[in-house]
Amino acid sequence: MVDISTKFTFAGNFNFHIVKNIKENFLEGLEHSFFGQLRKVLVASHRISSKLIAETKLPLQVDQLPVFMAIYIHDQISQQEIANNICRDKASVKRTISHLEKNGLVKIQPHPTDKRANLISLTEEGNKAVLLINDVIEEVNKTIKEAAATDVDLLTNALKSLGEKLASLPGLDDIHCQHIQNS
Fold first, then answer.
1. How far apart are alpha carbons 11 and 21 in whole angstroms?
2. Which strand (E) or helix (H) includes residue 107?
3. pLDDT at 75
C-alpha cells in the first residue's frame, strides 16, 4: 500500500516546479507581448498625465477625466448616459460626479421629465478647467511624440483600427458602451 502523504508530497513538489515554470514563462512572455507593452505605455502616460494635472492644481485625477470630459462634451447629461458613454459602472461615475460637485466643477439639476434622473453640467469653474485639461492633453501628446521612435499618428491610427476591430468581435456586442460623441 502506498503512503498517501508521500503521494501528496511528490505531487506538491511536482506542481510547485510546474507552477514556477509557468510563472517564469508567463512573466517573460508578458514582457514581450502586446499586453505587456500596452501596459507599460498606459502606466507611463498615466504618470505623465497625473504629474501635469497636479501642476494645474485642479481637484481632478486622471481616472476622473473621462467623466469630466463626457459632461463637457454633452453639457447636460445623466449619470447613466455618462456610464454608458465611457464604459464604467454607474456607482464609480456617481463617486466621480460627487467629487466634481464638491469641488465646484459640476452642478447637478433634476431632469425636467424623468424624476428618477438628474442632469449634470459643468459650472463656470468647470469650463475654465477644460482649458487647463486641454493644455495637459496637448502636453502629454507632445511628450509622447518626443519620446516615440516612431510616427505617433501612425501608431494612434493603428491602435484605433485595432480597437474598432476588437470591439466588433462576436460576443462583445452585448457590452453597452457607446463612443462619446457631440450631442
1. 15
2. strand 106-110
3. 86
Q: Residue 145 and residue 18: Cα distance in Å, rounded?
A: 42
- The span from the CA of 36 to the CA of 13, in Å, is 30
A 10 A CB-CB count for 90 gives 13
The string of DSSP codes covering 82-106 is: HHHHHT--HHHHHHHHHHHHHTTSE
**Domains identified in the chain and CATH numbers:** 57-167 (1.10.10.10)
- pLDDT above 70 covers what percent of the chain? 81
pLDDT band at 183 (very low <50, low <70, confident <90, very high): very low
Please report how the helices 4-31 and 34-56 are oriented relative to each other, as an axis angle in degrees rounded to 10: 60
Length, in residues, of the chain = 183
- HSE-CB at 162 with a 13 A cutoff on CA atoms is 8
- Look at 120 and 39; give whichever has higher pLDDT: 120
Q: Which phi-psi region, left, alpha or beta, contains residue 15 (left: φ > 0; alpha: ψ -120 to 50)? A: alpha
Amino acid letter, residue 71: I
Beta bridge partners of 107: 121
Closest listed residue to residue 93, CA positions, set 109, 106, 82, 108: 82
Q: How far is CA 3 from the centre of its chain?
A: 53
